[in-house]
Every structure is written in C-alpha cells, then in structure tokens.
C-alpha cells in the first residue's frame, strides 16, 4: 500500500509556487502509482486554528503524480467555496495530502468509526427523485466533533438535499466507507525542506518568500 508522504506535500507546494512563477515544478521525489487522492489547503494566521481554504480530489484511482499536480492547483484556485489562493497567502498555508484506501460497503449508515473511516453516501432525493452523493474524508467528523447521525445529516446537506431528514430516509442511504493515509506540511516546513535539500527558499519573481514577504520589498 502506498502511504502519503512528505515528498507528496512538497510536490503540491512546488506545483502551487510554480503556478505563481510561471515555471514548471521540479520533478516529484516519489514513485508513481494509481490511487484515489485528495489535496487540502488550510490557512492559519497568528497561531490560530487552521481554516479550510480548499479541498478537492478524486474517489477514483488515478496516477498520483499527475493527480497531485492537478488537484494541488484545482483545490487552491478552483474550489468554488473560496476565492483563489493568492501568492501572498503562501506563508500561512498548510497542505494535507491524502491517499484513500480500503473501500468497503457499510451495512448501514451507522457502520463506520469516527476518526477512522471516510464516507461516501448515495441516496435518492425523495422530493425530486434524483440521485445525490457526497463524501467526507476520515478526519472531518472527528475534527468537527460530530456523532454518526450528525455526520450523515451534514453529508446529506452537502449532497444538496434540503428536505426533511427522517430516520427512514437515513436507512435508505448507501454508505461506502474508506480509510486514508495523510501527511500535513506547513509552509515553514516546506521552506526548511527546500533549504535542506535544494539549498534555497522558494522564490517568486526571483525574490525569496519568507514570513509572508518577498525580501527586498
């Protein structure tokens, strides 16, 4: 099984920095493979709790090198819930890379563990007779402090269902549970990695970005 690694998070940062510089990112320092994956960006200011800034991925297996490259940018720039991340935000960012594993069909909507399983729900909207689906990564329910029912109900809203949620409707949901390995890296750790392994901090327009400022400005 492939596990999420530091080098995968570095590659996502490399890809985002390269977007701002107009250059190609350095080649990845991990082997390719085929797995479902997600890239999550969060932003923390002045030691505050990191807040979601973008999260997009795929539940279908795909090549992880091109996958991380694509979703690093898609989650940073094209998550419709947020404005695109700007280069000045880099020093406040942390990146979490997730590789999804162990897909299983749950017996019912309660057949999963908070903090261990991510969820994919699928159900028919009784008001419009259309299929709806949504997913939460394994860390979401625990981070929010949700119970099983609160997680399922939140997923139904995420899927676009606005009607009344009943126990009978919950029992009709098809739940797929999965697990993940993940690695989180803050921008400061990324800078330290680059200095150790490449001898220089990331630079935009030729100027190193340190502590939120381009030196020389």
Largest sheet: 6 strands, antiparallel
Q: Using the alpha-carbon principal axes, give the shape.
A: elongated
Give the total of beta strands. Answer: 9
Low-pLDDT stretches: 212-217
Radius of gyration: 19 Å
End-to-end separation: 46 Å
What is the helix/strand order? HEEHEEEHHHEHEEE
Helix content percent band: 25-40%
Average of the residue pLDDT scores:
94
Beta-strand portion reads 25-35%
Number of helices: 6
Question: Which sequence of strands runs across the widest sheet?
Answer: 2-1-3-6-4-5
Class by SSE composition: alpha+beta
Organism: Eleusine coracana subsp. coracana
Pfam families: AMMECR1 (PF01871)
Protein name: AMMECR1 domain-containing protein
InterPro entries: AMMECR1, AMMECR1_dom_sf, AMMECR1_domain, AMMECR1_N
Question: Could you explain how this protein is built, in words?
Answer:
The chain is α+β, with helices and mostly antiparallel strands and 217 residues long. It has six helices and nine strands, in the order H-E-E-H-E-E-E-H-H-H-E-H-E-E-E. The strands form two sheets. It has a six-stranded antiparallel beta sheet. It has a three-stranded antiparallel beta sheet with strand order 7-8-9. The chain is elongated. The model is unreliable at 212-217 (pLDDT under 50).
